[in-house]
Write a structure and sequence with these properties.
Largest sheet: none
Number of helices: 3
Shape: elongated
Strand content: under 5%
Distance between the termini: 33 Å
Number of strands: 0
Order of helices and strands: HHH
Helix content: 55-70%
Structural class: mainly alpha
Amino acid sequence: MTRHDTDVVSLVAALLFLGIVGSWALDRSALLPGSKGWLLPLVLVAAGVVGLLGARPRRRNADADALDDPYPDA
C-alpha cells in the first residue's frame, strides 16, 4: 500500500461539519446546562489549529534523501 499525504482541506472541512453538527446537537440536548455560545467558536478554533498544523513544512528523512540521489559520490 502506498503512503500518501493528508488532504488538509478535506480534513478541516470534515471537522468543521462534524463540529457544527455536534454543537447543534448539544444545543438541542440538555447535556450542557446554561449558555452554549462558546461551542461554535471552539469548533472554529480547533479547525484552524488543525489547518495550521497540516500546513507546516514537512521534514524530509535523511534516508529518503539518500535514496533520491542515484549517484551519491558523483
